[in-house]
Structure formats: C-alpha cells, structure tokens
TrEMBL record:
Protein name as it appears in the record: Kinesin-like protein
Lineage of source species: Eukaryota, Metazoa, Ecdysozoa, Arthropoda, Crustacea
GO MF terms held by the record: ATP binding; microtubule binding; microtubule motor activity
GO biological process terms on file: microtubule-based movement; mitotic spindle organization; spindle elongation
Positions with biased composition (Polar residues): 33-42, 579-589
Family: Belongs to the TRAFAC class myosin-kinesin ATPase superfamily. Kinesin family.
Sites where the protein binds ATP: G159, Q160, T161, G162, S163, G164, K165, T166
SMART domains xrefs: KISc
Biological source species: Amphibalanus amphitrite (Striped barnacle)
Basic and acidic residues bias (residue ranges): 7-18, 623-641
GO CC entries: microtubule; microtubule associated complex
Subcellular location: Cytoplasm, Cytoskeleton
Length: 687
C-alpha cells in the first residue's frame, strides 16, 4: 500500500483563532493514512517537531471526524501521549517519545545496542493536544453520528496506570468532586460527546428519539450498578449483578442493570456525575486518583422515523454508545500496592490480560476463527460485541512519555497496533419485522422500476395508448414467460407503409398482447402491495401489544436515584455548541452561564410537541385493541416516545415546554428510598 501521510496544520478561520487558544492543531495532532504498525529504526532521535519531512503535507481545511472512519470495518486506533507530570519532572525525567511527523512516533532505545522503536498510527495526539482536539480528531464525533444512525459504538481507553485514560474520557479528578464547572476546558470526551449528541439529534427533525443511559463498573470481577448501587445492609459492599448470555441476540448482557431515561443533556450529565461519584478510586505510588475498576457508561439511542411520508409505519433503530474507561495495568512493585489495593491490581491485571489475549487472537487471521476467550472475564464478555461483533470501535491508547515507563508504553503501543488489525462487521440494529418491511418495500420499488423501464422500452403511455414504433432494439427483462416476444415490435417507422395489411394486424395484436401482460404485471404488484399493507397492519397490532406489555412492566418500575446537584445547563451548552466550532468555548459570557441573547434551545421531541397540538392519528387497530387502549388511557399515542412521555412523571412539561426535571427526579429518589433502595454508597476504597 502506498504511504500517503500528512501532518495537520489546520488554520481555518474560526477554528482556534480566539485569544487564549493554544495555536493550530497541527502542532499537537499528527495524522497518517496508513495502517498503524511497529518497526525498528536505527537509534536516531527524531526531532520533537519534525516537520522537515518531504512526505509531510500541510492540510488546510477540516480534519473532520468523518474522514477518520474510511475503513470502519476495522477497529479505529488513535494514540494520546500525556505530558510529563509534576512527580516525573521533579525526578528530572525526560520524555523518551518523539514525533517526527506523518503519524509516526519514536521510542528512544532503552540501551546503546538496542534500536529505536517506531510506531505509526492514523491519529497521534502529542502532549499538548487539548480535550477538544481529541473530540474533533479522534473520530469520536463520527461514533456519535453512527450511534444515532443505529450502530452499536464503543470508545475505550487503554493504557498503563496514570497514562491519562480517565483524563481523556472524563477529565481531571477534581472536575466532578464538587459542583462541576460546566464550562471548563478540561472536560473530557464523554461530556463533549454528550453535547455533540444533542446537537446531532436536534438537527434530525424527522425522527423521534428516546435516550436512556446506564453506568456500571467491574470491580474485583463483580459488576456493580453505579446508578443504583443497592447495599444489602449498611456498610456492606453493593450488590453485584449477573452477566448473562442472550440466546436470541447472541450477546452478553447485565441482568437488572438500571437504565435512566434522559430527555435532556442535563440528564445525561447527571448520569455521568453520579457514576463518577460512585466509582471506586484509590491512591497509589503512580496515580493519586487511580481507577480501581473498569467502567462502562452506555447511552441507548432509539430512533423512530416514518417509513414513508404518508405511511403509518415507523422504522425504529437501536443505536448504542459505550464509553469504556479501563483500569490501568500496573506493576504492583512500582505502585507499592498492598492489601486491598494489591487484590484490586491483581484482578485488574488478570482481566486486562484476558482482553490482551482476545485482541491478540482476533488480530491474527489464523487464530481469529478459533476460540476467543471472552468468557474468561466479565470485561471481555461485555466487550465481545465491540471487539468482534456488529459494532464500531474506537480505541484510544494512552501512554506516558517518561523514561521510567518505557516498557509499559511499548506494551500499550503494541496492543494498539494489534487492535488496529481487528476487523468487525458493523450493522445497524433494527427490529426484524421492520427490516422485513423495508426489504419488501425495496422489492416493490425495484419491480415498479422494472415495469416503468419496460413501458418506456415499448413506449407505452400511462393509459396504455398504442405505442409509436421505434428503430431501437428493445431490451429484455420483466416477466418474459407471459409476455410475447417484443423483438418483432422493432419495426422501422420509415418502413411502416411498406407493410402489408396482415402484417400490420399481426403487429397490432402483438402490441395488445403486450399491453395485457403489463396490466397483469401491474395487477400482481398491486396484490403484493395489498399483502404488504396487511403485514403492516399485523405489525402495528403487534407493536400495540408490545407497548401495552411495556406499559405494564414500566408501571412496576421506578426511576433512578439521581439528583443533579447543580442548576441545568443543557440549553446554554447546546446554544454554545451550535454557535461555536469548539464544543466548550470559555468566553466570559459563557462563564456567566448565559446564552447571551436570552434564547434557550432545549431539545424536546418535535414529534411529541407536534402531537400535543394536533389530533391523534387515525389508528388501524381493531376495535377490541382500541377499547383496551382506551381502558388504559393510551389511545391516540402512536409511538414509543409519546407513550413513555405520557406515562412517566418525568415526561411532563411546564407551560414553557421545559420539564421540571430535578424535582421529578427528587420525587423519584424519595419514592425509591421509601421502597428500600440505597440512594448511594459510601466510598469503597481508601480515597
Ligand atoms: N493529557 C493530559 N494533560 C494533562 N494532565 C493529564 C493528561 N493525562 C493525564 N493527566 C493527569 O495525569 C494524572 C493521571 O491521569 P489519569 O487518572 O487519567 O490516569 P489513568 O490512566 O486513568 O490511571 P488509572 O488507570 O490508574 O486510573 C491525572 O492527574 C491527570 O489529570
């Protein structure tokens, strides 16, 4: 494969030219169009700002996230190298990683007689890269867009302890400790992706969306619900959940995992805050706030769209966006772990080893068809679908540049290179009956096109008028069994007057026979369409039945005990993100938490608002079902979102269209407390 590489020096006006911005991204982000790979170079040290390479080419324009997913059947891998931290600087350590450009990085040789290691990745973030750079150039935006389109997407951070995984995903530890500053530039990928997600949803006015979120951690091989960490007894560790195999979907899932319906950006941010508050963190030699568990934050995105303008049938897609923050691998000697922290480290290392084996086997064409040990850890069970299933995956490999961490950095980069070779088969997740409707509709469309084509070939008008005879040789196609050969119809217009009366009669008869055949064909198409409509009716009835079932299940459930300990920010953030290219710009106006022009742009379900103001759609449901719906006061609501909004107290809105969310959630929390669930859990680790 030819190597086309480029260094990015983006200078589009308005991108990062504001005062106080940190220069063009070109200094901080390297990009290469090649596959990542490792090679060994003679022990030369590249320059830290290696722009003097003939292959480097300045890239003026957007390095959008979309183009970073050309080969989305591969796991997309990017690398982020953090700056040297204070401890390392105080020890006088220097950086052993250099960036010669073209998406390359060089790791200085560990000894005189050893050669320097070279790696190349599609995207490489230097220590100076900002959190916004990571969102814009890692392909994370594309992941958000694909999740909205119905794909299961996963973004995970991998690397040794203290390499910057949590920093990349959620920002520095102080950010969420008290009431978080929503406008901080330190916010990580999760926060920024949430803001972008609502931007994308806002733009798709023709769809209804239903968002839900869950947040879990895998701590010492136990799955804990971070949104509903129920303690069996005070002082006892929270109850763990089971990971089970779903035969139908052929995937693992966590049983009884709590999911929270999120109507606004603030709801998602509350989920993030609550999870971060509850996750296990401890201090050791290499990281003061080290994650002691793997966490998976999932946003489930259900979208509904009309199958056609005038159709009563809705197509729903089920996208998913997973953010996985892995606990870092650690050498227990280096971290001086003992007691509880040592037990945690052993469990972390064990599950990461299984993950490493899975990645290694999947990237090897000979081994990938054999046994992949997903079942050996909870982490790999839950990541199996992202690694080799129908999902799209972005891996952010985090590395430390310090000399003392060279062997760990090498390991991380080798894993990253291997992961890049894994192939997946991304598919949109859809209701099977709905995909059947789509394929039947496609078939009808093709048949109609074929019919039109045949008519055009025979030059038959819409009302079957006698065609003019052309010079052309008609093509073949359509139902040739029933229709007479049209070869004979190709008579030169000029020669018409030469034909005898019998020949003219014969020609006319052939045309009439053709006409009859086409009419038959059209009749067939109409019959097929009627059959499709009958199918649709059946599906509508089935949907109504399922919705009633859902209603029953939901009436026995209550909502999450999440209380946002802050005012709402959704409107401000969305207004900003729409008006600015940077997702979280830090202007004085925004620090005042105001949108400036006083206009708020809160996302509400457009279809729901429409429906509130219009009469309900005429349903094709039989009377018996209609009666049942009436009994349950559900009549007239015709999609999931509408029904759920009618059903849940959180869906109710005040006159200005904005729902009194925090009060509703507080009420829910009180109800859950009365029901005996624990509102939170005490810190588990030695933080
Ligand atoms: N790119 C960066 N810029 C500035 N500071 C960073 C960066 N990456 C990491 N840090 C800082 O380094 C410290 C360790 O980072 P972090 O906690 O994210 O590491 P980690 O890989 O998640 O570690 P662990 O696996 O132990 O949880 C934190 O104080 C963090 O803020």
């Amino acid at each position: 494969m030819g190597v086309i590489t480029e260094r990015v020096s983006r200078s589009r006006s308005g991108d990062r030219t504001k005062p106080g911005s940190r220069g063009s991204t070109g200094d901080r982000v390297h990009r290469s169009a090649t596959f990542s790979g490792e090679s060994t170079l003679p022990g030369s040290r590249g320059s830290n700002r290696g722009s003097a390479n003939s292959l480097n080419k300045s890239h003026n324009g957007s390095l959008g996230s979309l183009d970073d997913f050309d080969d989305c059947d591969n796991i997309n891998v990017v690398v982020r190298v953090r700056p040297l931290n204070e401890k390392e600087q105080n020890r006088g350590e220097d950086s052993i990683i250099t960036f010669p450009g073209q998406g390359q990085m060089l790791l200085e040789p560990q000894a005189e007689n050893i050669k320097a290691k070279q790696f190349r990745f599609n995207i490489l973030f230097e220590p100076e890269a900002t959190q916004e750079d990571v969102l814009s150039h890692s392909g994370a935006k594309r992941m958000v867009e694909m999740a909205v389109e119905g794909y299961p997407c996963t973004i995970f951070c991998y690397g040794q302890t203290g390499s910057g995984k949590t920093h990349t995903l959620t920002g520095p530890p102080h950010l969420f400790r008290k009431a978080p500053d929503m406008y901080s530039e330190d916010h990580g990928l999760v926060f920024r992706s949430f803001v972008y997600l609502f931007q994308v949803i806002n733009e798709q006015k023709d769809k209804d969306f239903l968002l839900k979120a869950s947040y879990l951690e895998i701590y010492n091989e136990k799955v804990i619900d971070l949104l509903n960490p129920v303690q069996p007894e005070p002082g006892k560790p929270p109850r763990s959940l089971m990971v089970r195999w779903n035969k139908k979907k052929r995937a693992f899932f966590v049983e009884n995992l709590f999911t929270v319906e999120c109507e606004e950006l603030d709801d998602l941010l509350a989920v993030l805050e609550e999870g971060l508050r509850n996750r296990a963190v401890a201090s050791h030699n290499m990281n003061e706030f080290s994650s002691r568990s793997h966490t998976i934050l999932t946003v489930y995105i259900t979208s509904e769209q009309k199958a056609a303008e005038d159709s009563d049938v809705y197509i729903s897609k089920l996208g998913k966006l997973n953010f996985v923050d892995l606990a870092g691998s650690e050498m227990t000697k280096k971290t001086n772990s003992e007691g509880k922290t040592l037990e945690e480290a052993n469990n972390i290392n064990k599950s990461l080893m299984v993950l490493g084996t899975c990645i290694s086997n999947l990237s090897d064409p000979k081994k990938k068809t054999g046994h992949i040990p997903y079942r050996d850890s909870k982490l790999t069970k839950l990541l199996a679908d992202s690694l080799a299933g129908s999902g799209v995956t972005l891996m952010i490999a985090c590395a430390s540049p310090a000399r003392s961490n060279i062997s760990e950095s090498l390991n991380t980069l080798r894993y990253a290179s291997r992961a890049k070779r894994i192939k997946t088969k991304p598919i949109v997740v859809m209701d099977p009956r709905e995909s059947l409707i789509i394929s039947l509709k496609r078939e009808v469309h093709i048949l109609q096109q074929e019919n039109d084509q045949l008519k055009a070939l025979l030059n038959i008008g819409a009302h079957g008028e006698v065609p003019a005879i052309t010079n052309g040789t008609p093509g073949t196609g359509g139902d040739a069994r029933r229709r007479p050969s049209i070869a004979k119809l190709a008579v030169d217009k000029e020669r018409l007057h030469e034909l005898k009366t019998e020949e003219l009669i014969e020609l006319l008869q052939e045309y009439m026979a053709n006409n009859t055949a086409l009419r038959d064909e059209n009749l067939d198409l109409h019959t097929l369409r009627d059959a499709l409509m009958r199918d649709q009716d059946v599906i509508i009835k089935e949907n109504e039945r399922l919705l009633r079932k859902l209603e029953e299940i939901n009436s026995t459930c209550s909502r999450s005990p999440i209380v946002p300990a802050r005012p709402t920010y959704s409107a401000d953030l969305q207004v900003q993100s729409l008006s600015q290219p940077s997702t979280l710009p830090n202007t004085p106006e925004r620090n005042g938490h105001g949108s400036g022009d006083g206009q708020v742009n809160v996302w509400t379900n457009p279809r729901y608002e429409e429906k509130k103001n219009s009469s309900p759609r005429k349903s094709k449901v039989p009377k018996s079902v209609d009666k049942e719906l009436e009994k349950r006061q559900m009549k007239g609501s015709d999609n999931i979102k509408g029904k759920i909004q009618q059903r849940t107290p959180s869906g109710t809105r005040s006159a200005d269209g904005k729902k009194p969310k925090s009060q509703a959630i507080k009420n829910d929390l009180a109800a859950r407390r009365r029901a005996g669930a624990s509102p939170g859990r005490p810190p588990r680790a030695n933080q």
